[in-house]
Amino acid sequence: MISVLNNVTSLVAENNLASTQSSLQSTLTELSTGLRLNSGSEDPAGISIANGLSANIAALTQSSQNASNGVGLLQTADGALSQVTSLLNQAVTIATEASNGGLTTAQSTAANTEFQAILSEINNIGSTTNFNGVAVFSATAQTTFTSDGTSAGAKTISTSTGALSSTTLSLNSDSLTSTSAAATALTDITAAINSIAATRGSIGASVNQLTATSNIMNTEVSNLTAAQNNVQNADIGKTVANMTQFNVLEQTGMAALSQSNAAQQNVLKLLQ
């Protein structure tokens, strides 16, 4: 049957051409962004998974930084305590000397002056040492928060450096003004050295824990990033092949549409 009312062949060619051009546009978008998923309509489930992984990666990346900051603070504390230990070792020498009989009053006074200067320096270290503006030595425990973005993956690591002063080390009432006082001070100084050593041991354990936590999180970030890439990134080789195919189909589709419209014009020959 010959008809001029509906050119079905042309409509089919036009619809196929529109579909090809839509696919070509989508392929070009993938190539320009490098992403397979550029809108929620393309793959709703894939977009949801990719966005969830992105949130996990963001939380883990920041948590790794939190752990690194925690390590930095604790290492600052350990370095300060190392200096305090050196000062206390000097105090041991002075107190041992002052505990020995035969010192003149002037010599005992000089020894005590040096000892009090050491205590003053310890107080200074305790009150001024800070990391990123935060006091390192405090009665409040230092906390580091880490998370993978989920409530189940949240964890807080606490380490108590404690306040640091001649008072907290039980040295504030000591003096070297007499042999008996010096002997008492020597005992207290030794106890303070042991206390500092214990604190440094606790700090070292926390540094190891935070370092391990940071390493684990960095590994998780790498794995999740790879998974996210698999979900959302375009396969460039396949996408280029698709672009070539759609380019050819677009050209053949336009040729087919042109031929369908030309065939319709043949009806006019019947009227000549």
Structure description:
By secondary structure, this protein is mostly helical. Strand 1 and strand 2 form a beta hairpin. It has two domains: 8-34 and 234-271; 62-232, Up-down Bundle (f41 fragment of flagellin, N-terminal domain), CATH 1.20.1330.10. It has five helices and four strands, in the order αααββββαα.
Compact description:
The chain is mostly helical and 272 residues long. It has helices at 8-33, 44-99, 105-128, 179-232, 236-265; strands spanning 130-131, 134-135, 142-146, 155-159.
List keywords for this structure.
f41 fragment of flagellin, N-terminal domain, about 270 residues, 5 helices, 4 strands, two-stranded antiparallel ribbon, single chain, mainly alpha
Number of DSSP strands?
Answer: 4
* Unreliable stretches: none
Largest sheet data: 2 strands, antiparallel
| Span of the ends, CA to CA | 19 Å
Which class do the helix and strand fractions yield? mainly alpha
Shape: rod-shaped
- CATH topology value of the largest domain: f41 fragment of flagellin, N-terminal domain
What would you say the CATH architecture of the largest domain is? Up-down Bundle
Query: Helix count?
Result: 5
Helix content: 55-70%
What fraction strand? 5-15%
Average pLDDT across residues?
Answer: 84
For the largest sheet, list the strands in their spatial order.
Answer: 1-2
List the domain count as a whole number.
Answer: 2
Q: What's the Cα radius of gyration?
A: 39 Å
Q: CATH superfamily membership of the largest domain, which one?
A: f41 fragment of flagellin, N-terminal domain
Determine and state the CATH class of the largest domain. Answer: Mainly Alpha
Order of helices and strands: HHHEEEEHH
